[in-house]
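Sample intake sheet
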Amino acid sequence: MIQGLEEIDIDRSSYVDPNGFVFRYKGDFYRAIYRNVADFYRGLFENGTINTLISQHHLVSTEISEIQLPQPDVALVLKHEKIEPISYCTEWCPSMLQSAGLALLDLELAILGSDCLLQDCYPWNVLFRGTEPVIVDFTSIVKAESSLIWPAFEQYRAFFVRSLQLCLQGKGKVARYFISNNISGISVDDLIQASTTTFKLFHPSLLFEKIVDNTLQKKPDMRIRLRQNLEKSKPPSSDVRRHFFSRLRKKLANLKFPKGIDAWSNYYQQIGPQIDRKKKLDSIDSILNEHQPASVVDLGCNTGVFSIIAAKKGARVIAIDSSEACIESLFQTAREDRLPITPLISDLFCPTPPSGFLAKQYPGLLERVESELAMCLGLMHHLHITGRQSLPRIAELVHSVAKERLIFEYVAQDDDNNVLLGAGRPIHYTLDDVKKCLNEYFSRIEVLDSDRPTRKLLVCAR
């Protein structure tokens, strides 16, 4: 038995669940279940429901643990699969958000047969195993006792439906900004103000919903009477709920997000024949063959050419780029080919910061993506010239996410792309300058040719 709470690390985001709490112990994830609901969850294990939900409906792999906690109100401890990387909805492309939303509805439809509902539907309850959404909030599954069809419906609309409506208008960045508020998500007012005139013309019900919402906000007595009437009403049948969830799922599944196009998603099509792309591809392939990393983070991944090479060799890959179009394209490709790649949208000049209560609830990006091997290819000049980051700062960045090795592409000062970037200030550096900065963190550096004379691949090891 664990002697006391000081031996475990209670997850900072597990503070409001009435059924238990999540904690870490010796590197693994566990969930304590309170005594008043322990028999309910134990029964779902015993009748085979949990195994079905795990194998067919996106629930995180979970087993009953022999660990015991000393607290008298804890009667059961579960052990969860550790899903890596931890990612958040503020880093997802539209298809990832849609995939997570559909997974929640699939799970909801599956548990109706056990007379259960999901009590909440935050996107923070979903992680990605590669491109597969995994629902990690086990105790969100509760008995269906509410008189509402789905008590979490407004929450689902605020984080999934309205976000995807903005994405359909090409406003994915706006949607990700709004849902960074992990409490309220996107309100009707937010959606109306951020939407195009065309969208509002084709969705006149939004204005009606806003009027009703504003009226209820101004008349608390009316809200109280409505709530009291709902609480007195008979709970809807499982058939009514099934019809509701099936319709909602169909609407969400019908949304189509094409592989977007922007200046970066077409980058490889714009490379001239004088560039020896095969030479660089072969070099990266050879390096990965030699070292066989179990995990790789690809910084500035673009559409994921090198991420795909690493994934096909068995590495778990985290691919990061600021371009939504590139990440959308890579996610769809990886999903189609069943590759273990989790693509994330984040700007390396200003990566996703810690957030939530006291800015400690959700760790920042760089705390979550450390991998055995990091790749920083075709990015140095963007970080140094466009981003105005010094060479020591760039070395610190790549060091922070590379546990063992780094493949860093040096871009010489006279590279044609540097001319296009336009520094606007004096720039001077050499290969030796870059190696000196990297040597602060990596003891061995091997220099290989890349795809053009002005670039080199630096293979760095701790």
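Comment: The chain has a mean pLDDT of 92. Residues 89-253 form one domain.
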